[in-house]
Amino acid sequence: MNLTVGDILALPGLEALRLRAGQRHCHRPVRWYYVAENEGIADWVMGGELVFVTGINHTRDEANLLRLLQEGHQNGIAGMVILTGEAFIHAIPDSVVAQADALGIPLIEQPYMLKMVIVTQLVGTALVQRDSLLRSQREILTQLLTGDYPSIELTRQRASHLQLTLNRPHRVITLRLSGIPALFDNAPPDRAEAQLQAARQALRQALEERLATLPASLPLVTLGELFILFWPEVDAAFLDGKAWLGEMRQSLSPSLQPLSLFCGLSCTVTQAHHYRRGLGEARRALEVAESMRPDKGICDFSALGVLQLLTAIPDQELLNRFMKETLGPLFATNRKHPALLIDTLEAILQENGNVIKAAERLGIHRNTLNQRLQRIERQSDHRVNDPQWRLNVSVALLIWRMSHAQQQEFL
């Protein structure tokens, strides 16, 4: 995994560094380090930096240090290191320590006697080494996900050498930000791009922070617009992971707007050469989450039932044609509510043919429901209680919901 604040504190040669606040957040991944030479840092950090504050070029009084923490929090820094000694910043004020704790920012004190050149060299070297390892690990995982590897035995050998733990059950989880076309349609390109990259960085940081808390976790992988996690399925770890995904999606929602986050989960993957299947399942579950369950935002492929079969059919036109042939006669383009009869039929199926409960579900009188059922049978040329037609309708309704077809014309 990425080098964390805690990893940096444990580097040989940096024993003089002292953690003053934010101990619970030392698992934050460090993307790089930044030495603050300006009065503020908001324009100079992108998220994930370990910020060093020296006080050499600017007066670093209590107010300025508090401001730096606030700007760092808003921009997602990994942590802050404040150099203390006789020359510039004599001591870290208690208010700064308290604010770092309140904001969840690891705050580290570095004595001036520990030379900055030594610290940055050790940190920079460790970051480069870890980045090189991560690139190789992600290369192996990408090969397994795409099926593009020379041989499974060689891939396993490389994975073992690169400290990748593949011999335990995992779920493949795909995450994607939705609404990107609308973002660029409604904002100037430069502002839309900035919003997109800020959202992606916020998501990446949240995912990597969580992965850093898992023992022997596999690194985050990106394929195009997809973020891909490998979540261990041992004991209650996966149930905790599903709960965390929902909580993360909710907590990130304000910072991601106008984009939305959707997640798809595969069935359990127990062998390295099955990761490709896991990715396919997770992607199909992601499509269902986005099209059929936007309020929840998360879909588990193992819970899809017959949708597992429908999402595996590559010929989308075949599915659409079946849906149109089955439901098309009930769709009225010239009416205020063109899908009225389809919604009525769906209510009948959901209530197992119980007319009273279906009428209650729709909020209409039973006589009104009976009139609609007569129209359905007349226009479809099928009896509602015909078991074969009910099966066809059930499948067609799933395709309709899955493909956003309710937003399109049938014919």
UniProtKB/TrEMBL annotation:
Residue stretches making up the PucR C-terminal helix-turn-helix domain: 341-399
Domain CdaR GGDEF-like, residue spans: 154-288
Superkingdom as given in the UniProt entry: Bacteria
Residues covered by the Purine catabolism PurC-like domain: 7-126
Protein family according to the UniProt entry: Belongs to the CdaR family.
Protein name: PucR family transcriptional regulator ligand-binding domain-containing protein
Organism of derivation: Symbiopectobacterium purcellii
